[in-house]
TrEMBL record:
PANTHER family: 4,4'-DIAPONEUROSPORENE OXYGENASE, PHYTOENE DESATURASE. It comes from Gordonia oryzae. GO terms for biological process: carotenoid biosynthetic process. InterPro entries: Amino_oxidase, Carotenoid/retinoid_OxRdtase, FAD/NAD-bd_sf. The keyword Oxidoreductase applies. This is 4,4'-diaponeurosporene oxygenase. Signal peptide: none annotated. GO terms for molecular function: oxidoreductase activity. Its cofactor is FAD.
Length: 495
């Protein structure tokens, strides 16, 4: 039995803490914020409840396995509901497409909305994506990553052909998808890792397959309930979370992590430390050793992931018949990625962005029938005052929010006259709230053929220190963060 301190009460930190506490360790979670959840945030105002992070649960069996493995069925603590319509897409030509939540129904829906043959194109693409999943999910997504794993895959010629490490997501999709609207749908999945589809690896095709195979789910009351359920489970097992306690340093003595020092100067000794913080933050601010500096230099060679600009809308009179999730595509998708990643100039706000609208049909998150709590997201460059976008510059946040609402109106969703109040959250706000450098949602992007497999390892090069969360292996998003926690807890169990 070990004394374990987890730094950060995001989903990854809480999930790792639950597994470790259940395994017999004594676990304390220290969270600098006054609330739990990390990027899975919640904001309440005037009776409206907003999720400020993920809007959907995908691969819900991973969440269910965590609770089942540690003593309780997920259905006892969370009301998970499968969405009949996963998303409504609006394409630049004005075509609307409702993607069913049932994979078997998707080809017919594509044919009906986009034209005969589109369903077959998408099915062929997903068949290849399924084979990528089969080749990669065991050795990469569910296991500690190592160069030995990559070498093992390289020796399996058929798997190499399937994963196509020399190809981008855009390149692979173009082999199967001849309708430009289908290619836009495929491109969108690069943003699940904060990446550019022209540079993200073809392996990311497994993302749409997994999402559509297991469906899209919502938690009644908002996805923030997940963090509460995780905290409750940890408490029931005997662990505890201490909010409002920032960590200034992960102490390393004789080459081994042996505790943390809080911002108040208190030493909290531990046998093991699990950092649920952005890897760049860990290796630049919390640990100062030669191995940490080497890891930081490696991270600095990667491309940071994109960030997001969020508008929370409290609507006094919600338009009827809204889908849970809506995506409004721009005329020029490439121009969006050029702007966010600084091609042909510095990283900059997108003039004609893709707009993501989440409008849950959930009485638990609004003060009265007929009102709506809408989450609006657009891809955005990270906060970088020195060489990119300074999101704290006077008037930028308000003027850009106005612009996004104008874009929505031009694409047929004009709710400006229905707004009771609005709240903007910029990449700078995200950086401050989660201590994520620049507000990069996923740490490093998956831009480049090897990037998706070379995230910081869960076992750091410093004995006694482990990493968990979206910036570490295997990546960002709720299911991968939960897998990260399982991997980290397994490594500690074998240590």
């Amino acid at each position: 039995m070990a004394e374990v301190i987890v730094v950060g009460a995001g989903v990854g930190g809480l999930a790792a803490a639950i597994r470790l506490q259940h395994a017999g360790h004594r676990v304390s979670v220290l969270e600098q914020s006054s609330s739990v959840g990390g990027k899975l945030g919640t904001l309440e105002h005037d009776g409206f409840v907003f999720d400020t992070g993920p809007s959907l649960v995908t691969m819900p069996h991973i969440l269910a396995e965590l609770f089942a493995a540690t003593g309780t069925p997920v259905d006892d603590v969370l009301d998970l509901q499968r969405l009949p319509i996963a998303a409504r897409y609006r394409f630049p030509d004005g075509t609307d497409l409702d993607v069913p939540g049932d994979l078997a129904e998707i080809p017919d829906a594509l044919d009906a909305a986009l034209g005969a043959g589109c369903g077959a194109q998408w099915s062929s693409f997903l068949d290849h994506a399924r084979r990528i999943w089969d080749a990669t999910h065991g050795p990469f997504l569910e296991s500690p990553i190592s160069l030995r794993d990559m070498a093992s895959l390289a020796r399996r010629v058929d798997d190499v052909r399937t994963v196509a490490p020399w190809s981008s997501l855009r390149g692979l999709a173009s082999r199967y998808l001849h309708d430009p609207r289908l290619r836009m749908m495929a491109d969108r999945y690069a943003t699940y890792t904060g990446s550019d589809p022209r540079r993200a690896p073809a392996a990311l095709a497994s993302v749409p397959w997994a999402e559509q195979h297991w469906g899209s789910w919502y938690v009644r009351g908002g996805l923030g309930r997940i963090a509460i359920a995780l905290t409750d489970r940890l408490n029931a097992l005997g662990g505890h979370v201490e909010t409002g306690t920032a960590v200034r340093e992960i102490r390393v003595r004789d080459g081994r992590a042996d505790g943390v020092i809080t911002a108040a100067g208190d030493l909290r000794p531990a046998d093991l430390v699990v950092a649920n913080a952005d890897a760049a933050q860990v290796y630049s601010s919390l640990v100062d050793t030669s191995p940490a500096r080497r890891q930081l230099r490696r991270l600095q060679r990667s491309t940071p992931s994109l960030s997001g600009f969020v508008i929370l809308l409290a609507l006094g009179d919600e338009p009827p018949g809204q889908p849970h999730h809506r995506v409004l595509f721009p005329t020029d998708y490439d121009a969006e990625f050029d702007a966010v990643f600084g091609r042909q100039g510095v990283p900059r706000p997108v003039t004609d962005p893709t707009v993501y609208i989440t409008a849950p049909d959930d009485p638990a998150i609004v003060p009265a029938a007929g009102t709506g709590a809408w989450f609006i997201l657009v891809n955005a460059p990270r906060h970088d005052p020195e060489s990119g976008t300074d999101w704290d510059s006077d008037g930028l946040v308000q003027s850009y929010a106005d612009h996004v609402l104008e874009v929505m109106a031009a694409r047929g969703i004009d709710v400006r006259h229905r707004i009771r109040h609005r709240i903007e959250l910029s990449p700078a706000d995200l950086a401050r709230r989660t201590l994520t450098p620049g507000g990069s949602i996923y740490g490093s992007s998956s831009n480049g053929p090897r990037a998706a497999f070379l995230r910081p390892a869960n076992a750091s090069p410093i004995p006694g220190l482990y990493l968990v969360g979206g910036s570490a292996h295997p990546g960002g998003g709720l299911p991968l963060v939960l897998l990260s926690a399982k991997i980290t807890a397994g490594l500690i169990g074998r240590a």
